[in-house]
Amino acid sequence: MEAATGVECSPVHTSLCTEQADIAAREVAAGGCTICCGQEMRFFEELAEELDAEVPAFVDLRDRAGWTDDDKDTGPKMAALVAAATMPPASTKTVDVVSEGVCLIIGSGDVAFGAARRLADTHGVTVLQLDDSDPPPEREFDVIRGKTRKASGALGAFKVSFDHFSRVQPGGRGNWRWTEPRNGAHSECDIILDLSGQAPLFAAHEKREGYLRADPGSVTASMDAVFDAAKLIGTFEKPLYARVEPILCAHSRAGQVGCSRCLDACPTGAIAPEGDYVTVDPMACAGCGACSSLCPSGAISYDAPP
User: Fold this and answer.
1) Is 40 exposed, middle or buried (CB count within 10 Å of its CB: 0-12, 13-18, 19+)?
2) How far from 137 is each of 114, 143, 196, 220, CA to CA, in Å?
3) For residue 284, which of 271, 295, 294, 274 has the smallest C-alpha distance?
4) Alpha helices (runs of H) in the chain, residue ranges in sequence order
5) Residue 178's Cα: distance from chain center in Å?
6) Listed residue (153, 269, 260) closest to 204, CA to CA
7) What single-letter DSSP state applies at residue 64?
8) Pick from 43, 44, 64, 63: which is nearest to 54 by CA?
9) Best CA proximity match to 190, nearest among 149, 222, 160, 147
10) C-alpha to C-alpha distance for 260 and 282, rounded to whole angstroms
């Protein structure tokens, strides 16, 4: 093994996670070791934490190469696995996503207003109220009414348009007064907290970063969504999963549509036609890889490591 990989190897141990744990502790404390077992990885990670040492590297020789009745040809495979484990991991291409905590809450009555109160101290909150109840008297957050026409984008860059849009008019005593409803209003936000109980605003909504949806009839689900929204302030790294080579794309030529496999398969709607080619919205892409697996020309490739 040493001759094949150039990696210094210890004697073969059979129970480093039990009777030979003292040997494992000594090597982990010294640092720079690799343990050839994946099943008991958690034990060795906890051991490193107890010793205040660097977590060792792991390569799963036992399950991937060691368990076989034929022990004559395991050497090359084991050497290949060890050599692969010593290679630096492939870097992931990312883009920074900035969320300043501008949050749109969609819902009715006490559920929506209760969520808004919990977020108002740290977020810039607007409630899209779906019922006719009076808004709370405090002005910790804005309240609007209307119907969502369209939503696009993802965490840090949502764009929402409304019909029948109206907002509270500041005034004195008496009933709440609202502006005249109008269509085509637009807004932008970083986070959408959907407590409407209606159909989701996005296809494959669970994959849309920054869009949180919960059943308003479930207190637990609503509070979990509020808690998740509270954490979505700051700068986040978004992996860039897909790479497009337009010259290879067979979507369209001379106005005649050809291939649409990726468009049909994308669960999040991240892929859209652009002339003769297609483009991928990296903010909406969830990295499922369906597009690259179906592309007949190789125009879309999965650019992030698995």
Assistant:
1) middle
2) 13, 11, 22, 26
3) 271
4) 2-5, 21-30, 41-50, 61, 74-86, 109-119, 219-230, 261-265, 290-294
5) 38
6) 269
7) I
8) 44
9) 160
10) 19
Convert the pLDDT of each residue in 138-196 to its tens digit: 789 999 999 999 999 999 999 999 999 999 877 666 567 888 999 999 999 999 999 99
> Which tokens belong to 7?
């990696």
The per-residue pLDDT for 305 is 60
Which stretch of DSSP H or E encloses residue 280? strand 277-280
Q: What token pair was written down for 171? A: 């005034």
What is the per-residue pLDDT for 66? 60
Pairwise CA distance, residues 227 & 232, whole Å: 9
CATH numbers and ranges of domains, the chain = 2-86 (no CATH), 97-237 (3.50.50.60), 240-302 (3.30.70.20)
> Who contacts 99 (Cβ-Cβ below 8 Å, separation ≥6)?
155, 156, 190, 191, 210, 232, 233, 234, 235, 236
The structure's pTM equals 0.73
Task: Assign 219 to helix, strand or coil.
Answer: helix
Main-chain dihedrals φ then ψ at residue 110, nearest 5 degrees: -65, -30
Q: Is the pLDDT of residue 254 over 80?
A: no
